[in-house]
Write a structure and sequence with these properties.
Elements: H1 21-31, H2 37-58, E1 62-63, H3 75-78, E2 82-97, E3 100-116, H4 123-132, E4 138-139, E5 141-144, H5 147-151, H6 166-186, E6 191-196, H7 198-201, H8 205-213, H9 221-233, E7 241-246, H10 262-271, E8 276-280, E9 300-306, H11 316-326, E10 335-339, H12 354-372
Parallel strand pairs: 1-4, 5-6, 6-7, 7-8, 8-9, 9-10
Antiparallel strand pairs: 2-3
Helix pairs in contact: 1-2, 6-9, 9-10
């Protein structure tokens, strides 16, 4: 089996990591006016150094900053795009878990001027990360996909006076992302992940019904999203590996959607021009592996078999059996292993401890080593 020295790696992870208590305390103190921005950033810097060291110590070939400077995996990025602003209106996303239901609430967004890139978003954050990783470890940047700008609010969030023609909105959005890709590549980024819940949500009939009710073409929405992502990354340099991660919601160990990848699989895997797919596969909500038959040669699939929603540790034997099951539909050479999602998609984090997080990452590395060498 060929060793991989380019992303995605045989043992990899999605990106977000549990925030240490000292960082949560510092964020609270900043909100109360007891710390200034520089003091908070110093605490973040220290916490990121520690978590990068942890990723190295468990044997991972990639490292993120754990998204420690963010409140949310996606909105921190989206609100920094020119033309997009939060509003007083609230968006509620309904989540559920084994214990019951809960809702995630955030400010709605409004697009009230042409979408554009006004700054290199997370540029300074990536430069800091790249400067502290060890030789042989690849700094990985995670950002939400272009789809997430539209999925959260739909066309109702767009001022029709700004975009009477929706095609111009899509063109501007992809152009802004393309410029972001160009700039972060110029900063030395060699591993970019586009996080996308929409492409997984669209497999759930109830989610498609919600989109239909607000006036979207839910049956074909994934095709539009695929085209826009492709436009955003079309001119990326060959030195930049781009993956996408798809899950069905990850908030305080809860989820928002269910369903296998069947509805989007053929178009998604055959047309989306990324180098690899991080796929949630930690329980029955994710369906079976049969949709992987549409993945073309040369594309990698990172099986998210290790759950990040609870601390209970999977067995290596069960992971290996599931990898064998997936290999009935796609060559083993095209597979990798990771957690099903991040450990802390929002600042709140999932319901497990730091030690359990480390054990999960170590299990991924050890299992991958035994399967692929």
């Amino acid at each position: 089996m060929t060793l991989r020295d380019t992303p995605p790696f045989r043992a990899d992870h999605v990106g977000s990591l549990l925030r240490p208590q000292r960082l949560l305390d510092a964020r609270q103190q900043r909100a109360e006016g007891k710390l200034d921005a520089d003091e908070l950033r110093a605490v973040e810097d220290e916490a990121i150094r520690d978590v990068v060291r942890m990723q190295r110590d468990v044997g991972l070939r990639s490292a993120t900053d754990g998204e420690f400077r963010r409140t949310s995996w996606h909105m921190d990025f989206i609100y920094r795009l020119g033309g997009i602003h939060p509003t007083d209106e609230k968006i509620q996303v309904h989540f559920r878990n084994e214990q019951g239901d809960l809702d995630f609430e955030s400010a709605a967004l409004a697009i009230d001027s042409p979408v554009r890139l006004e700054e290199t978003i997370f540029g300074d954050d990536f430069t800091f990360l790249a400067g502290i990783v060890d030789p042989g470890v690849t700094a990985k940047l995670t950002i939400p996909s272009p789809s997430m700008v539209h999925y959260r609010g739909g066309f109702a969030a767009i001022d029709p006076a700004v975009y009477p023609d929706h095609e111009q909105f899509w063109a501007d959005l992809s152009a802004a992302y393309a410029e972001q890709v160009r700039r972060i590549s110029a900063l030395g980024c060699r591993y970019l992940q586009l996080d996308d819940t929409s492409l997984a949500y669209l497999n759930d009939p109830s989610q498609r019904q919600l989109l239909t009710e607000r006036g979207d073409d839910a049956e074909h929405q994934h095709l539009r999203y695929i085209r826009q992502i492709n436009a955003a990354i079309a001119d990326r340099p060959s030195s930049l590996a781009v993956t996408t991660h798809m899950c069905r919601g990850n908030f305080r160990s809860s989820w928002a959607a269910s369903g296998g990848y069947d509805f989007v699989a053929e178009a998604l895997f055959s047309e989306l021009a990324v180098d690899g797919f991080f796929l949630e596969y930690d329980d029955d909500r994710s369906g079976g592996f049969a949709p992987l038959r549409f993945v073309p040669p040369g594309k990698m699939v990172v099986l998210g078999l290790v759950t990040t929603k609870r601390g209970e540790l999977e067995s290596k034997d069960s992971l290996k059996r599931r990898i064998d099951e997936a290999a009935k539909y796609i060559p083993l050479e095209q597979l990798c292993l990771s957690g099903q999602c991040g450990f802390s998609s929002t600042v709140d984090g999932n319901a497990l401890s730091y030690d359990e997080e480390v054990a999960k990452l170590s299990l991924i590395v050890e299992t991958a080593s035994e399967v692929w060498g």
